[in-house]
Specification:
The structure is a single chain. The chain has about 280 residues and is an alpha/beta fold. About 50% of the residues lie in helices and about 20% in strands. The chain is globular, with a radius of gyration of 33 Å. The N terminus is likely disordered.
Length: about 280
């Protein structure tokens, strides 16, 4: 009888230990499921560091963006963007779309920012452009044919001046036309505007000075830039059009400051302008 009682007690203890063991084992998977939750919480931070910013630009705006003889897309804007991205440690993809398409892409949210020799103008700011600090101060200049007797604004009285639509050069010409008595004809692109002067239909055209100097040099154009017929100048800026991309603008400004301080900026200008 005692043996039976002892055996029964042993059996109960065995069952009790087995039950406790099953409860402890049941808790184990719960601890294992916590790790993936923590990993998921960290995932957004990893995704943020892998973000690739889309930067829209023009196709041809020498010497700021253009394709060289090797088929490489190069220029001041291209090199500045690369230097700033390296300095700030962010990734980007540059898309050469043409001026109108580049602006439209940023406005539609298909691109995050624009760098294309865009003059910082109040009317653009009023329409939603958010500009960086200026990265190049460009003047606009009147340009005449070789051998022209036009040397000052007063010489334009009664003559016609060619301008390109929607540019700072057009604004500059329009600001002077009434004072100096000349008319203005608008063109859609620079080559056609230059040709109008070369054909003698217009006495002068107006273009951003660095663009004009490069066009005369590389295109062998029979045009000259008279001294003293340029504007006071206005800066080019990198632009976003969505406040959600302020981080990109902040990085551009910080990187621009750094590459100016370490000499990279001057090296880029010297490469394309000889400055």
């Amino acid at each position: 009888m005692k043996k039976l009682l002892v055996m029964a007690m042993v059996a109960c203890m065995t069952l009790s230990m087995a039950a406790c063991g099953s409860k402890e084992e049941a808790k184990a998977p719960a601890a294992e499921t916590e790790a993936p939750a923590e990993e998921k919480a960290e995932a957004p931070a990893e995704e943020a560091s892998d973000k690739v910013w889309i930067i829209a630009t023009d196709t041809v705006f020498r010497p700021f963006e253009f394709t060289n003889e090797k088929g490489e897309f190069v220029g001041i804007d291209v090199d500045i963007m690369a230097a700033i991205a390296e300095d700030q440690g962010f990734k980007y993809e540059m898309q050469s779309l043409g001026w109108d398409a580049a602006v439209a892409a940023v406005q539609a949210g298909q691109a995050d920012g624009l760098i294309a020799g865009a003059t910082i103008k109040q009317e653009r700011i009023d329409s939603g452009w958010i500009f960086s600090d200026g990265y190049y101060n460009a003047t606009q200049t009147f340009v005449v044919a070789e051998g022209s007797d036009i040397a000052k604004f007063e010489d334009l009285a009664g003559k016609n001046v060619a301008v390109k639509n929607g540019t700072a050069g057009a604004d500059f010409a329009n600001s002077l036309k009434d004072e100096y008595g000349f008319t203005v004809t608008v063109f859609e692109d620079s080559p056609t505007m230059y040709q109008d002067v070369l054909l003698g239909n217009s006495a002068a055209c107006v273009e951003d000075t660095p663009i004009m100097a490069d066009s005369i040099k590389t295109g062998g154009l029979a045009l000259v830039i008279p001294e003293g017929m340029e504007s006071e100048g206005a800066p080019y800026g990198f632009a976003i059009m969505n406040e959600a991309n302020q981080e990109l603008l902040d990085m551009f400004n910080a990187g621009l400051k750094n590459i100016k301080e370490n000499g990279t900026y001057d090296e880029i200008l010297a490469k394309y302008l000889g400055e």
